[in-house]
Write a structure and sequence with these properties.
The chain has 15 helices and no strands. The chain has helices spanning 12-15, 17-23, 25-41, 48-67, 78-105, 107-110, 119-127, 129-145, 157-181, 185-199, 207-210, 217-224, 227-240, 248-272, 276-279. Helix 4 (48-67) crosses helix 5 (78-105) and helix 7 packs across helix 9. The protein is globular, with a radius of gyration of 21 Å.
């Protein structure tokens, strides 16, 4: 008769954490599929909301850009300029909000079984790629309408999408961990998204900032530290081609801030993860 022994090593959960992420990939897929069903199946207008939201954002931001006479690079129509920025912004704002609220929304799951908690916010971010695809289709339709053909730089779009994912994941898991202990963050999350929209180059272009002689250099530096500046500028550069410029110093600084948030987010999340079930 064979005996099966289960040996629990002290700190084994921490030791094999990253291996467990792969081990629990089935749970990752289940949570992602569940979120898809909840978002698109159990709503009144379903998938239509994923179309309405970027269209409304695009319309309002294009109007604001026209109202404040934002510069248009080359012969690019304003709707295309704003559309290329709305694409990553819609993905980021949705992914960030969903990830930031994901742990509190799944509190019952966190208190029942062990699994790497990082799976929860990560699955919500991946689901938001569906919204990205819908927004991309809208942008393609606009490009067809304006008879605008992108150049070979469009092949770099996956890189900038990955950068948007890194930005959403880094900031999202940081706020998600804080939201477990400090519930006031649930009121701050919508403010961060709304404020971020106005200080990111969605309605305007970065040329309005970097080429302005009225804006102090210190504010230009602060502007470049917004991680979404590099993401949006990158999307515009690879979609609209040579019509838009990529300001390398500001772009590199923005990328650096994105990965800094990812590092800090993962570090703080892992440090506080063990106590989630006790305080949530």
């Amino acid at each position: 008769m064979h005996e099966h022994r289960i040996i629990l090593e002290p700190g084994s959960a921490d030791k094999h954490y990253w291996r467990d992420l792969w081990k629990f990939r089935g749970l990752f897929g289940f949570l992602a599929w569940r979120d898809i069903l909840v978002r698109y199946k159990q709503t009144t207008i379903g998938v239509a909301w994923s179309v309405i939201r970027p269209v409304l954002t695009l319309s309002v931001m294009a109007f604001l850009g026209w109202l404040f006479e934002s510069k248009l690079p080359g012969d690019v129509p304003r709707l295309l300029l704003v559309g290329a920025a709305t694409l990553p912004w819609t993905f980021f704002s949705t992914a960030f909000s969903e990830a930031a609220n994901s742990l509190v929304a799944n509190r019952n799951l966190l208190t029942k079984i062990y699994f790497p908690r990082l799976i929860v916010p990560a699955s919500t971010v991946i689901v938001c790629l569906i919204d990205f695809l819908i927004s991309f289709i809208i942008l393609v339709l606009l490009m067809i309408f304006y008879q605008f053909a992108p150049d070979v730089k469009l092949l770099l779009l996956p890189f900038f999408l990955l950068l948007a994912l890194v930005t959403a994941m880094g900031t999202g898991i940081l706020i998600a961990a804080l939201n477990v202990k400090y519930r006031d963050f649930r009121y701050i999350i919508p403010f961060i998204v709304q404020f971020g929209l106005y200080v990111s180059p969605v309605a305007f272009s970065s040329a309005d900032i970097y080429e302005s002689i009225r804006i102090p250099e210190a504010l230009k530096l602060l502007y470049a530290m917004n991680p979404m500046v590099g993401v949006i500028d990158g999307f515009r550069w690879c979609i609209l081609g040579g019509e838009t410029a990529l300001y390398i110093p500001g772009f590199l600084l923005s990328i650096g801030v994105s990965f800094f948030f990812l590092f800090i987010g993962i570090r703080y999340f892992r440090r506080t993860e063990r106590g989630f079930a006790d305080v949530i």
